Amino acid sequence: MRAAVLHEIGQDKLEVLDDVEAVGFGPGKVRLRIRATGLCHSDVSAMNGVLPQPAPFIPGHEGAGEVIDIGDGVSGLSTGDRVVVCWLPACGACPACKRGQTQLCLAGFMNAGTPNFKRPGGEVFGFAGTGTFTEEVVVDAGCAVPIPDDVPFEIAALIGCGVTTGLGAAINTAQVEAGSSVAVIGCGGVGIAAIQGARVQGAAQIVAVDPVASRREAALRFGATEAVAPDGLGDARQRITGGEGFDYVFEVVGKSATARTAYENTRRGGTLCIVGAGAMDDNFQVNMFELFFDEKRILPSMYGGGDVLRSYERAIALWRAGRIDLESMITHRVPLAGINDALDQMRTGESLRTCIEL
Fold first, then answer.
1. Beta-strand runs (E) in 279-320
2. Which of 45, 103, 186, 243 has the smallest number of CB atoms closer than 10 Å to its CB?
């Protein structure tokens, strides 16, 4: 079968091969036929080594498709079911799950260290234990979450990561209050979802911050009340908050420099929500006096900071009701053979989300 493979960490191109086989099928597993998958910035971060991932590997974790085979002991799924791929399934038994923090369950991360593909040259890993830039994948049954028939595969794929992450950051983690002021730094797919989440929550002002003009224009269509380049953030802060700072600032880039900018533009007693996934050696610093004196809440948000299955259901309900726009987030569509074009579009900021259609 066909799949897009990264041979070594640090390479910027994927090779689309037709000699890949999905392996590991057995008890507790399901085999999926991928129909659509989104390109998320985390895929690029894994390719360049910012996020740890063994190689060679198949990127992709934001996918949707159909169940084509079911292993022994699997219940609640049938052949032909339409599903969204959940790259961080909850085991239900670990301390994090028992506390109700299923987004912190480590079971899914353990899958990332087990190859779930092979080719004549040897074993191949799937990113985040999945690997959706391929025609078929074998995953734990918990990674396959049924979706209603009226949800298109490309919409379900977005819900599988970017939409859930951004919406959840605003709704679950930060719990944006109605009438508040919000700034979102980084307006790719996840940032746009955070903007939509803040709008759903009733924020009065939502300032989108991004260096790419097309993304700023897009942010206005999705609910931002204004959009500025990074050098315009200070002026927006002065005009909107009288210089005090925003009630909520979302950092959706994953770099310490933008996290520091976000911190500085959060009002005293306000909330800084860290959504971007950054590198282990990129340290965010605050001094002990400002940490104490400003009483700013620093809230990391992992995969939307809440129960993932509930978050999927909420996203679908909001989409059906017309409260969020998911179709327009897909700015480009390419076949698997065009995956490197999609990577270039993401790196330049030309795309919000590219749907790879298989």
1. 297-300
2. 243
